[in-house]
Design brief:
Largest sheet: 6 strands, mixed
Distance between the termini: 49 Å
CATH topology of the largest domain: duf1285 like fold
Order of helices and strands: HEEEHEEEEEEEEEHEEE
CATH class of the largest domain: Alpha Beta
Number of helices: 3
Strand content: 35-45%
Structural class: alpha+beta
CATH superfamily of the largest domain: duf1285 like domain
Oligomer: single chain
Number of strands: 15
Strand order of the largest sheet: 3-2-1-6-5-4
Shape: elongated
Radius of gyration: 18 Å
């Protein structure tokens, strides 16, 4: 891999350039692809470097600010290089939801606050192997958060039935948008 620690230092320096909780403009950076770095984001949202969990929450949050999804996969991006990483499912996990007026506000495991709506949609896929729902929330620029099971149960409890072209569906409203979470009667606890 070469100088992995030097690459990590470059990522850290680039991420620290963003003011406050602001996000660096990774969508504007077009550095050359510099290969891969041994970082894996597991299905549960845990970040690993060289097989070891990254235990410093602040470091994971910092790395999350320079994460970008490109057509060929996920990368940590700086103004001078981009390094491909492995993401097993979604890069983030939505760990909390609160209703604030007409909006649903989510908190992710890396500290992002996201209001579901036309720009940040909720979608539910059915797991092909288990038949279980896999709910996701768009966070930013193609990056999604898997909605944690307890949070999804909260959404289902908030859900109201609505007639759709696919028949009666349960869904939630947020910021003027309606999101189906499943067929009517299918997910009631």
């Amino acid at each position: 891999m070469g100088d992995a620690s030097g690459r990590l230092e470059g990522v850290i320096a680039a991420a620290k350039q963003a003011p406050g909780r602001g996000l660096p403009p990774v969508h504007l950076w077009n550095p050359p692809n510099c290969g891969e770095i041994d970082i894996v984001i597991r299905k549960d949202g845990t970040w690993f470097h060289e097989g070891t969990p990254i235990g410093r929450e602040a470091l994971v949050r910092l790395f999350s600010t320079v994460l970008r999804k490109d057509p060929d996969g996920f990368h940590l991006v700086t103004p001078v290089e981009k390094m491909k990483i492995v993401v097993e499912d979604a890069p983030f996990v939505a760990i909390r939801v609160d209703r604030e007026g007409e909006a649903l506000k989510f908190l992710t495991n890396v500290g992002d606050e996201v209001t579901a709506g036309p720009e940040n949609e909720i979608r539910v896929e059915m797991d092909a192997q288990t038949g279980e729902p896999r709910p996701y929330l768009h966070v930013r620029r193609g990056l999604e958060a898997l909605i944690a099971r307890p949070v999804f149960y909260e959404l289902v409890e908030m859900a109201k039935e609505r007639q759709t072209p696919d028949g009666p569906r349960l869904g939630v409203e947020s910021a003027g948008a309606w999101f189906p979470v499943g067929p009517a009667g299918a997910h009631r606890l």
